[in-house]
Write a structure and sequence with these properties.
Blueprint (H helix, E strand, L loop, with lengths): L1 H14 L2 H4 L5 H18 L6 H16 L5 H38 L5 H9 L8 H8 L4 E3 L9 E6 L2 E6 L2 E6 L4
Helix pairs in contact: 3-4, 3-5, 5-7, 6-7
Length: 181
């Protein structure tokens, strides 16, 4: 009876697929290669890739297809870096579109804006003599506004960044400090 159990166990072992008990040592690399190929294909489908990014993804894809040794971590990080760069550009472009839209709306609502101020607003610039509304159209709202307490005649200070200050008197820009021209 004992012999029968051994023969039965041996028959089970022989009939079982080899990978169940003895995994293919190359399968992990094959799986990694397939996973990276899918990542690269996904990145190649992204809109907004520049020529250098396209070329880099193409080289990575060719390396994986060649069967040559590869550094999976490096490829994965490179693909993630390209995807992040595309996302950053997309956000930047969206921000620029929002700014352009704000400028165009202001100019549409204020058709009597002088050509010189109109050009400054469309370029995202500010100059002495512009009104508070024109500055908001050009640069948007400041991060802070400040007027010394108790002095209604003191110039109002608008702060855009740590280095960018505008001073207003009578509702018009009088001084620009560290402006982003």
């Amino acid at each position: 009876m004992r012999r029968f159990h051994h023969l039965f166990a041996a028959a089970l072992l022989l009939s079982a697929p080899a990978c169940t008990f003895f995994p293919d040592p190359n399968q992990a690399k094959v799986d990694e290669r397939n996973s990276l190929s899918k990542k690269i294909a996904g990145a190649q489908a992204e809109k907004g890739l520049n020529d250098a990014e396209r070329a880099s993804l193409s080289q990575m894809s060719s390396l994986l297809a060649s069967g040559k040794p590869f550094d999976g971590n490096k490829i994965s990080n490179d693909v993630a870096g390209i995807e992040a760069a595309v996302a950053r550009r997309s956000v930047t472009n969206a921000g620029q579109e929002i700014e352009k839209d704000r400028r165009e709306k202001y100019l549409f609502r204020h058709p009597k804006t002088t050509p010189a101020v109109r050009d400054l607003i469309m370029q995202g610039k500010v100059a002495a003599g512009m009104t508070t509304d024109e500055v908001v159209a050009s640069w948007g709202e400041p991060s802070r506004k400040y007027r010394p307490p108790g002095d209604k005649n003191a110039p109002e200070q608008w702060i855009y960044t740590r280095e960018t200050y505008l001073y207003f008197e009578g509702g018009k820009v009088t001084t620009l400090r560290g402006w982003r021209q």
